[in-house]
Amino acid sequence: MACKPGEFAQPENVKRAVKFTVTVVNGTAKPFDTTTLTFAGDAQFAGTKAETIYDSSGDCKGVGLDTATVLPGKTYSYAASYSVPAEKGEMQLTFQPEFDHDKAVFVGPA
């Protein structure tokens, strides 16, 4: 969904901002630390890197580096916003739960 960055959001001069809700479901028997998702994650728009928006006061509120410990059987959701070109296109979000595990790739229009 579209969002409007606040006055002090970074990066500056965003042509268009898109916001996603990321939901982590822990289906394992061990606590899961979401920190690995933020450092192994990747966002692309139309085949180029999409910059994370760091926003503390606008509609894109969030920093894209939300971390938490998700207990077994629990879920955790956070917002992640990205700067993309003005025209619509395909967004790809990639997450990797741990460095030695397969990546999960989500693709859709933005």
UniProtKB/TrEMBL annotation:
Task: List the keywords (alphabetical).
Answer: Signal
Gene3D superfamilies under this entry? 2.60.40.1240
Name of the protein in question: DUF4352 domain-containing protein
